[in-house]
# Entry
Amino acid sequence: MQFRTFFLLLIFSVGFSINFYAQNKPGEDEVLRIETQLVDVPVFVTDKTGKPLLNLKQSNFVVYEDGKRQEISDFSAVGAPFEVALLLDTSGSTRSDLQLIQRAAESFIASLRPGDRVSIIAYRSDRVGNRSVASSEVLTALTDNRSRLKAVLAEVRTSNGTPYYDSLLQVVEKVFRETPKEEFRGRRALVALTDGVDSTSAGGFGEVREKFVEAGIVSYFIQVDTREFFEEHLLGDCESAMRFSQAQIRRYYRTFYPRANIEKASGFCQLGDFERLDISKQLYRLADAEMQLLAKMSGGRVFPLVDLSEARVAFKKVADEIGTKYSLGYYPSNEKRDGTYRQIKIELKGVPAGAQIRAREGYAAPTN
# Structure
């Protein structure tokens, strides 16, 4: 009898242990959630007149990834703070308007809310041997100290070149290198005042696009129109004209005539007036397409300027939109870590007819 009782207790004990382990096995839901990437989606919603809708709740949003509905795990209303990388391009024709740019940027920072944090990136020129070389510099890390930011703006200088792609890479690799704190997750933005025409970068747009898609940064561009100024100084004697850099000439041939059987100039003085104008036209067209693409993919916008005097108004519009964005987060049902691009679609429910939404369009799945 005692042996039989002991045997039954032993079986019960083993069975309970197996069942307990099966229900709490490592690698199940709890561990999987840690290993699965939370996808953040900043969202901007307006009514049919273009005014922001400010009192929406999580239940007003439906998220789809590659056509499959996802469960929203995280939601931040419009009052949550943002982190902003403010990029100021003071090269080319904008060099004579440095004070105007500084005042507009100062007004933009003042328009942000308490708790919003800003980092400032700008260009400068350094002497390397007998050459002047343009470089991009992060002037301050993210901070909500308005006095510090004002002092940093006073330090912004001009440059004789535009390391535009390099500065965008710095936004991802330096400004937003660390994982955001909880209150800033899914709430990071680039705000760039620039014409978008790169002249000296080591990096390229392909790398920029890949990193921005991965990081989920909302991209806003205040697009300065410098083409007329540039082309006025582009023609005539090659020694006194405003020059294309070798990087720009190579980018022109590589992008627009990759297979053409034509003689390719390696230096500016080898270019005729017609070719100079064509390079200018194509590089500005490329810059516009790249800005539009980054803005659209991230749920941001491009604000074209006729004149830099309009910069303050454009900055105010960006600040207003940043202050009225929602943020959604979800753990994708597709758990494959295959590096594929996943499309995101956000739908609204229970909102007035004619409401419009602008949001991140997709992301690249992790690979490790």
